[in-house]
Amino acid sequence: MAVLPELSSLSGGVGPGPPPPRRGARTQEELEEERQLVEAAKTDPGAFATLYDRYVDAIHAYVYHQTGSWERAEDVTATTFMRAYAEIEKFEWRGVPYSAWLYRVASNLVLRDHRHRNWIELPAGLVDPGEGPEDAAVRSEQVRRIQAAVRHLSVDQRQAITLRFGAGMRNAEIAQVMRKSEGAVKLLVFRALRSLERRLGPDFEEQLKPRLRVAAPDYPAEET
Amino acid sequence: MSSREEKRLATDLAGWLEGEHGIGESDPTTRAVARTAVLLVDALAPRPLRADTRAHIYQRALAEANLRRGPQGPGPEVLRVARQLQLPALLGLGGVAAGVVVGLTVLRQREARISA
To answer: Which ipTM did the prediction report?
Structure first.
């Protein structure tokens, strides 16, 4: 767990820690490679399959964190890529990763679902007994608890922090996906984190300490 | 916390997350929030789907895309047939249609004159 040493550096006021790693940050070369791939996908199904492989895990995880349902995540992910396949010929490159478009489609589908399909927001503890084995196998109890807390956030807050921390997007990119201002995104992320911090409670970090001692042996010393 | 203070802390946090600066050492609220942020990276990270799940979603997406393309109506089919027709044939059909329109117009004018 690469994030744990950074967690330890933040815990005791010993100096500013580095920000958490940002997934999805692209270099210009990577963006250019993706632009070429998208152009190729307009005529070559094999190139589209490469785009699918690149993003399916991320889109599925994003929808899963929005809906709390593995089955709905599969439905929405399939529909997102169905639209992507159907509309790739019309896609215009705008200098941002193709995933931004996919996240926007997935977000709209989730919101539409929320409005029109008798959506019932399940209590966090009852969410998704049908969760897939790949999910259940890899999640620790702490991770599960954080995810449960995330499901208590408002739809906008949940969307903002999933894009921020799950997809690794910058605020400007999140603003594009959510059609909000960057300032609004900053506030959403901040309020979501404060809400999570309160919900997880001070005992959460205590529970995390044994794990931290293994991954970041200097953690207890920094606490004092 | 006032709205102004909240905006200041939110901006501070955003700057740290974007790697522009360190987190404020003296501000316990921001540090606690930043700690939660670090936890989230792990908790919300995408996990690789199993190969069969991945393939299943792909097949569904393509099947639905093909279904959607199917019932698009006769438009594309009509265009395809039209492209196969020779240009003179199209011109001839156009001429016949124009003649019918002119004939109907003349007939209507005559009927109007008679009834007047």
So the answer is: 0.71
